[in-house]
């Protein structure tokens, strides 16, 4: 069954009164989003691995930059992407590229995961496309400028938390180490 068939079924349900216009639009958006994300991410991951692109990226980044330079580049890239893309897209786009680099530099993947989560949360509340800002606007019915001013303290706290975990990786790695993670 193709995407067009699924959309046609949705349209018939709408015409028959089984679903509302809002439900139809939401289902259509989710269906199109899922249909677009899956092939794109699998194509990117497989193409990178088949062409040994992951090894090439790890070699270039490992040889060119110091550890802190690579970390700074990765976090800036993820933060900027987070302003324009949703989190799952960022994870699917960056992980196949970043993980070989981290492995080449002997960076703990759990630590990376914690930092990625903090950074993505930070991106969700920063303009221009901070998705959580629009969700708050829909619920609170307040002007966007007021909402942005309201999240400024949280942005500061998230940056502080990100800096702490960057400077002291044991903060993120203590709990996994108690569970026999190496």
Describe the overall structure.
- By secondary structure, the protein is mainly α.
- It folds into two domains: 1-51; 66-178, no CATH class.
- It is 82% helix and 0% strand.
- It has helices at residues 3-15, 21-50, 53-64, 67-84, 87-104, 109-124, 131-140, 144-167, 170-178.
- Helix 2 (21-50) packs parallel to helix 5 (87-104) and helix 4 (67-84) packs antiparallel against helix 5.
- It is extended, with a radius of gyration of 20 Å.
List the helices and strands and how they pair.
Elements: H1 3-15, H2 21-50, H3 53-64, H4 67-84, H5 87-104, H6 109-124, H7 131-140, H8 144-167, H9 170-178
Helix pairs in contact: 1-2, 2-5, 3-5, 4-5, 4-6, 5-6, 6-8
